[in-house]
Amino acid sequence: MNDLGRIGLALRLPELEASAEWLRAGARDVELQDICELPELMDGDWRTVARRSRELLSGHTGRIGVHAPFWNLPLAAIDPEIRAVVQRRYLLGLDYAEEVGGTHLVIHSPYYFFGHPLVVHQEAALPEIELAHATLAPVLERAERLGCTLVIENILDTNPAPLRALVASFASPLVRISIDVGHAHMMAQRGGPPAAHWLHAAGERLGHVHLQDNDGSTDAHLAPGRGTVHWESVLRELRASTTDPRLIVEVMPGEIGRAMKWVDGLETAR
User: Fold this and answer.
1) Selecting from 3.40.50.720, 3.60.20.10, 3.40.50.10190, 3.20.20.150, what CATH number does the domain 8-269 have?
2) Which of 69, 128, 201, 202 could crosslink 89 through cysteines, CB 3.0-4.6 Å?
3) Which of 26, 94, 34 is nearest to 60 (CA)?
């Protein structure tokens, strides 16, 4: 049983400045998102930002991770030159993780169009898996040296089966499923199952969870309780998980205070 006591935050440096003490006090999970939200930082002085984040987390005994760059970076790129760019950016994510002591790296699912009536996805599934392997081969090799787990997050997926098959195809304990509760909830309005089903379907491959809320129409990244996600069923699945996934509240900066109060409320109830 997972008591949810490690629920922490995804944030950039300004929000970390304000939240570091709370994160340290609870030994909470942390996910640093500077390089994925500020693409210009990747070719700039990212090491200064990483080192400052590490300083703020001095004495923190919880788990730290990094969100890899993702804008315009498809995991299953067909073009070899595009694939090389994606690899370089993912490897930079691992550089960042090494700098901050991170042990997980979030990567986005390639299944953007699964379920769309114009895509015969079953015929494309195996080639997409092969392309994802081609992209991640040097990335996984480096991750293994660092002891850093790659977690692949549902984005516009409407069915958990392809993502589970992709993760299983690596046969590695360092490639796991990431479930974004808000993404699952949004896609449930478009024919997918509810968020709790995604968590259950991930099963023993669940390694990471983004907790965020919305009303099903847009990816709003609201604090839990501010949208229409059925949190009772989500929390029940998380408590039943035996894999001890990273638990990260991922909300807009203006929602972080509300998110912290929600987490504190869970602890009071427990």
Assistant:
1) 3.20.20.150
2) 69
3) 26
